[in-house]
Structure formats: C-alpha cells, structure tokens
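RECORD TYPE: inverse folding
INPUT: structure tokens
STRUCTURE:
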C-alpha cells in the first residue's frame, strides 16, 4: 500500500529535473561523504514522509551523526541530493522549519537558562518569546534554574535546555541525536509527550532500541555508510524467531553491509 501511494505522489520538483516525492519531508538520494581517507556515507538513500517518526540505527561509525549533520546543513555531502521539505538543508527555508539536537549539545555556557531560551527564541522570530520561555521552563522543570548559568547545570538539566532550544520554534522537521541522554525516567516521559504534541517529522539517531521504540514507529538501519534495512518497528520485530530479542535482530542487520 505504501509503495503504491508513493508512486502516485511522484512529481518533478525543480528546474534541474530532480525527482521528488510530494509528502516527503526528508529526502536523501545517493549521498556520499568522506573525511580524508575515511568514507562515512557510500551512496546512502532513504526518504521519510511528513509527519512520520523514524529511528536511525547503526553501529559506531555507521554514518548516523554525519547523516544528521548533512540534513541540518552543517556538512555538505561530496555527492548526492538532500532535501528537507523540498529545500536544500543550507537554505534559509530549511533552517526555519528544522529543529536539530546534536549529541552532547552545548548551549551558551555563559548565559542563563532563560537568556538562552529568549535569545534563541528571538533569533527564530518567535512572537511572545517570554511566554514561550515560561511554558518550556515549567514543562521541563527548569523554573528553579532559569537564572543559573548553563555552565553550572547538571548534565541532565543541560540536556533538557538543549531539547527546549531545539523545539522552541515548533519545527516541522526534528533531527535528534541521542535525545534522552542523561535524563531520568520521569523526564524522559515528559520529553516524549512534548515530542508527540509537536506533530512533526522526526529522525532520531540512537544506540538504544528501547528509546527507538518509545520515540518512533519506523526504522532505518545503516551500516558502513549504506542503507541495509527500512520498515516499521512491527515488521522489524517479525524478522527473527519469536523468542529472539529485537536487539539481536538489529545486531544481525548491522553486519549485512
């Protein structure tokens, strides 16, 4: 059913004759990226329909963080095509609709929690920045730290602030690299609920299947810069024996490439 629908949606999207799928908020086509003699991505291709939540899984060095950085416009691929809601990632249009949380994100350390939120909110052109800041402070239990410098925060509170900064403008597309790092279980549930209310397109890079299952419904598995499997979380579970853990199934997939 999904394949039939996506064929119907196929259209020419720009003057260069690049074929795109209407309704895809993330499109990666034959992307390569090298760092010196090390090739991180080798013709990687996948697409994510708008409003869907995908996990990006792979072993260390598979190219997960490189993929997210390219989508965020922080790296330029050596070859291939990348689009975020039909825009190239480095464009102003893509930047406006994108939220990005890198692994071990670093907010402005010399600013307070509130100053970080109000500054980034202002840069994003958010109306009523103070009100939006207040809501996020309360939702993420950061109110008691609003005047504290970020450099004095615990790792958990710094992560909560980083999440707030990534979604303060209510982005249409959200890229998350290990989003639940350093968070206790109650806070993880709050963050999960916050993400769900956004109604955005999500691509979540994580090493933990438990996190992938909680935050997403679909899976992209990459290994050595290649796509090795893509499908729903439920179909992934059915790839192995009924007694086999989902972690074991994913581990086998990661050794394919």
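DESIGNED SEQUENCE:
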């Amino acid at each position: 059913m999904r394949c039939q629908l996506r064929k119907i949606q196929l259209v020419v999207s720009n003057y260069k004759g690049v074929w795109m799928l209407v309704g895809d908020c993330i499109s990666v086509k034959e992307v390569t990226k090298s760092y010196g003699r090390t090739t991180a991505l080798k013709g990687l291709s996948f697409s994510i329909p708008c409003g869907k939540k995908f996990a990006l899984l792979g072993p260390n060095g598979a190219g997960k963080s490189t993929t997210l950085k390219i989508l965020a416009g922080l790296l330029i691929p050596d070859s291939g095509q990348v689009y975020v809601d039909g825009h190239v990632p480095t464009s102003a249009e893509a930047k406006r609709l994108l939220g990005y949380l890198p692994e071990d994100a670093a907010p402005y350390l010399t600013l307070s929690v509130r100053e970080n939120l109000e500054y980034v909110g202002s840069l994003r052109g958010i109306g009523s920045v103070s009100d939006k800041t207040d809501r996020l402070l309360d939702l993420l239990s950061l109110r008691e730290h609003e005047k504290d410098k970020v450099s004095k925060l615990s790792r958990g509170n710094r992560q909560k602030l980083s999440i707030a900064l990534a979604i303060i403008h209510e982005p249409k597309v959200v890229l998350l690299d290990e989003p639940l790092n350093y968070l206790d279980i109650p806070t993880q549930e709050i963050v999960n609920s916050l993400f769900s209310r956004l109604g955005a397109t999500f691509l979540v890079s994580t090493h933990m299947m438990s996190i992938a299952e909680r935050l997403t419904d679909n899976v992209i598995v990459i290994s050595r810069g290649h796509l090795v499997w893509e499908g729903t979380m439920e179909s992934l579970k059915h790839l192995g024996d009924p007694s086999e853990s989902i972690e074991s199934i994913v581990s086998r997939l990661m050794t394919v490439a």
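NOTES: The first helix runs from residue 2 to 8.
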